[in-house]
Amino acid sequence: MRYSSVAAAVALTLVTVSTSLHGQRPDDQINPRSLALLAQGRAAQAAGNLDGATDLLETALAVDPRNRAAFNTLGDVAQARGLPGKAIRLYREALLLEPNDRVALKGQGEALVAKGAVMQAKANLIKIRTLCGKAACPEAGTLAAVIAKGPPVQTAAAQTKVPDKVPPARD
User: Fold this and answer.
1) How large is the greatest C-alpha to C-alpha distance in the chain, in angstroms?
2) Calpha distance 107→138 (Å, rounded)
3) pLDDT, tens digit, for every residue of 67-110?
């Protein structure tokens, strides 16, 4: 009698755990529809259709939110649009899925340099070099070149819009 309640609890636990594990897909199996949308989004990006690429890539992420490549490509599109803050966030999402993603680290580093956060970009470069080991990897070279170039120079005139014609003063 004493053992029946304990045995029932153990059996119920085993049934619950086994059904929850059986229903999950491994992390490396991305939904094929999401991969197809990713390919279409990359094609639209290559054609210069950034709006269409954004729509397709966001749809790919809605189909399967574990699609790191879609986050990385969407970050590239944000960079092309001149939105480094948004790109940083998108690369961060990819890094949450895989902290050692060299492409996401490189993209985030480039966006950080564009925002003026060179020290954080250097931290990304160190991590990429650690991941590469003694082998030379293109991500490290590209990010090192961007860091060496430095953030874009913005003058006060570029930040404020000055009208071509000043309206006449009223008395």
Assistant:
1) 100
2) 12
3) 999 999 999 999 999 999 999 999 999 999 999 999 999 999 99
C-beta atoms surrounding 69 within 10 Å: 20
pTM of the entire structure? Answer: 0.72
State pLDDT tens for residues 133-156: 888 888 888 888 888 888 877 654
Would you state the structure tokens that stand for residue 126, as one six-digit string? 């160190």
Cα 73 from Cα 53, distance rounded (Å): 9
Q: How far apart are CA 118 and CA 134, in angstroms?
A: 24
Q: Which amino acid does the sequence have at 83?
A: L
DSSP-assigned letters across all residues of the chain: -HHHHHHHHHHHHHHHHHHHHHTPPPTT---HHHHHHHHHHHHHHHTT-HHHHHHHHHHHHHH-TT-HHHHHHHHHHHHHTT-HHHHHHHHHHHHHH-TT-HHHHHHHHHHHHHHT-HHHHHHHHHHHHHHHTTS--HHHHHHHHHHHH-SPP--HHHHSPPPSSPPPPP-
